[in-house]
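Summary for the funding panel

The consortium committed to producing paired sequence-structure records for every protein in the target list. Below we show the first two records in order, beginning with the earlier of the two.
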Amino acid sequence: MAPSSRDVGTELEETVQQLLGRLKSHRLFQSEWDIAACVVFLTFIGTVLVLMLLVLLHCCCRCGCHSSSPPKVTPRRPKGVDNLALEP
């Protein structure tokens, strides 16, 4: 059955009270697992933000790079050193 609005309100109030109690005691994390979960979560959020920043920079910089002239083609030169010992 769906919980009534009174039950949800009571649950929400209890959760807020627990959070305020933790803030007052200056102990937000109760165990090592809480700290580890927070670190993993913040790392994930940081990675997502960095990737979004890179995408934004790529989109913004790419718009200014378009030009009407075709790119210059440079002739290819052979690379490396000829091995004259293999000559007959």
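The next record, for a separate protein in the list, is shown here:
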Amino acid sequence: MKKVLVMFMLVFAFSTAFTSCRDTNKEKGDIEDAADDMGDAIEDAADDVGDAVEEGVDEVKENTGTGGTDDN
């Protein structure tokens, strides 16, 4: 009975060791492309936020009479 239990424990240990070390089949290029795309999206969003802030500042200047450029 002890030999069966020991063999079962060894098989279990080897199976968990080998299944936890599998390759994920993801290529490094795919991850780099995704990171580049994310960086571009962040830059575009930052530009949009900057434009909106400038537009808001111009609007406040127009409404308070302290300057600004008219969009019309």
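Regarding this second record: The chain has two helices and no strands. The chain has a mean pLDDT of 78.
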